[in-house]
Design a protein that fits this description.
Helix 1 crosses helix 3 and helix 2 packs antiparallel against helix 3. 84% of the residues lie in helices and 0% in strands. It is built from three helices and no strands. The radius of gyration is 14 Å and the shape is elongated. By secondary structure, it is mainly alpha-helical. It has one domain: Helix Hairpins.
């Protein structure tokens, strides 16, 4: 977990925003799979949601540093 945050902190703001879009798209696809009865993606969805929260937190931190 700490490694993921460190890895994200080293990224630029644009890279983090791209990561955010990718994770949001991944969550959408996983949610669709779960709705259609493919329950194997539950663990992946939880992990993707946590990663998205980390990304959003880091974007907010960078935003607050600028202000």
């Amino acid at each position: 977990m700490a490694r993921r945050a460190e890895k994200l902190r080293e990224m630029t703001a644009n890279e983090i925003e791209n990561q955010e879009r990718d994770l949001a798209e991944q969550i959408f696809r996983l949610r669709f799979q779960l709705a259609s009865g493919q329950a194997e993606g539950l663990k992946k969805m939880r992990e993707a949601k946590r990663d998205l929260a980390r990304v959003k937190t880091l974007l907010r931190e960078k935003e607050l540093r600028k202000a």
